[in-house]
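Final report, Chapter 2: Outcomes

The project's central promise was a pipeline that accepts a single protein chain and returns its three-dimensional structure in a standardized token representation, suitable for archiving and comparison. That pipeline is now operational. To close this chapter, we reproduce one record exactly as it appears in the project archive, with the input sequence first and the structure output second.
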Amino acid sequence: MAVGYIRSLRPDSARLDAVADRLAECAARAGYAVQTVYRDDGSDTENARQPGFRALMARVRDSDAQAVIVPSSAHLSLQPDVRRWMAQLIAAAGMQLVVMPQLAVGVATVETLPRPLADQSR
């Protein structure tokens, strides 16, 4: 069992619906049954206060899911320190963070962002 998480900087429900569907399909091929896909639509908040992420964290504490699936780490945050902190919150809840880069087609990822925003640790 798993839950998904997606975030978009701009409000685009149709695109996020498509990403959520693709996330569930790819996760199923990888052996995960996705219970719910949490989302933050039009959220430029770069921290764990995002309502979708807060709902995800509240759910995983009481869930039988073993993983949180994201299309790219950029769906957590574009800021490396915040991204690491959010990943640590997921791990502290006993969940594995699974990044499925095949989902990131047409979605900005850390690797495809303009240089000033990209993760400089690579």
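Archive annotation: Residues 105-122 have pLDDT under 50 and may be disordered.
This record, like all others produced under the grant, will remain available to the consortium after the project formally closes.
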